[in-house]
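To whoever is covering the structure queue this week,

Two jobs came back overnight. Logging them here so there's a record in the thread.

Job A:
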Amino acid sequence: TKEGFKCIILERRETPIKDSRSLGIHPISLHLFEKLSIISPFLEQGLKIYSGLARNESQEWGSINFAELKPPYNYILSIPQFQTERILEHEFLKLNPDGLIRGAEVSHFLDNRNQVNVIYNHKNTSRKITSSYIIGCDGKNSFVRKHSSIFFGGKRYPDTYIMGDFSDNTSFENKAVVFLTRKGMVECFPLPNKMRRWVVKTDHYIENPTAELLSRLVKERVDLSLKSTNCSMLSGFGVQHFIAESFIKNRIILLGDAAHVVSPIGGQGMNLGWIGAHNFTKTMVKIKNSSTNAEILLTEFEENHKKTVRKAALRAEINMKLGRKNRFPFFLKKLSIKLMMLSPLFKKTTVHLFTMHGLEKDPSKNS
């Protein structure tokens, strides 16, 4: 919208989500928000995480310091997803008050090579929009992708987890902590308003976890009690990696989870969607302002973004594997973690690994 394109968002949900879901906004995304002049509300409402710890049941193995990164965004910003969506929606509607249509469900669309006709239902009435492109940002079960017959290939990992948000009764302050124990991984991340997200690896998928179960597993593995805390969210989830065979099909564009799904361990998926949206916008500006064939520029965007997605997926898989019960001796895992966090040779690489640095060129220098 800021680049002069007319955009209409068709949102199936009648109301915004109320869940915390994705939490971590990485430095690369904070740079993008600064360019869009929407960074202030995020910094006002979010909590800055400057460091992370690796521990077992009783000892600290090492730490990583995000503050060593290049300022000003030398931290990961923790903010619940419902607040993130609220901020983005507010900023978009300031620019385009009629640009969001809630309760709109797309029934079909026709790509006739020169334009796209989109048919959707809204308030029991069938309506049509004619546009230059349709952009599918409709998640891993994307209707746009399926209706376009674009193959979505990948795999499901055996890893499963439960997570919950609890009032914070720890002494970890604003630090993220990963516990690597013989009984299984436990992670916890600070949230605004003195809350903390707990994630526990499980042996199998648990569809409806309880606060009692999560509290018991945390107590058994790391000897921390959550009994005196309040729980505001619980969820069980599995892990998968899928990527669309094509992000571009004539005038159909796939972005976000509609195009690629990576492991949520490491918190890269939401940020990866924003990177794709930003780079697609830059491509559209090139198409508008240059004589280069649009198909060539869109193909270039697709190839570059697929490279970024593969890098992010590999990093997410590394994060996930660190939390597995491995067959090799436990002391080797301890040694490898210490090398990653304490050795000058690997420490900088580890910080970059956990903050999405190096996926692309420095975003603070890009247009």
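Job B:
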Amino acid sequence: WVERRDPKIANLPSQLLAETRILWMTGISGVGKTALAEYLALKGWQEDHRWHWVSLEILETQIPEFTSVATEILANLGDKDIDPQVRNDKNRMCDRLLEKLQTARYWIQLDSVERLLNADNSAFIDDFWLTFLQKCLIQPNFTSRLVLTSQGLPTGILELGDRYPNVWHNLTLTGLSATQQEQQQ
């Protein structure tokens, strides 16, 4: 059902394989963000078997600081022995994660990113996330892809999207329309 759900979804696999580095999907809980993200990862892998897919869900107990999540991402990418001084330095962790994301074709799926946002989803609790995401967008030869799912979209992300429209994409998922529901039944 994912393929036929919305015509704008049809272009996402080719966009992610081409130039889009970050895809941010928003929508209410249960609308299918994670299912779509997994579908896109599968499509990407079918086109190019060099992709290494890593899927992480931001848990309610997750510390929303950049270094905490970056440490978990790096561990899932095989980089587990991080010196505590590096781990506690946002800039050094950012550089380390960016280097990792530039050296191989990683398809990183982060689900429930709203848990890294403030109560009204208008901003990251740790604003260094914006710095990291912007660096992902401006790096030369950035071979990895980030697919983030969230119930909200922080305003700072919208500004990044305006500045980097060729490598950034935002998709808001809504429920199926009445016509789509009838077609699916």
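Note for Job B: The chain is about 45% helix and 15% strand.

Please reply-all if you pick these up so we don't duplicate work.
Q.
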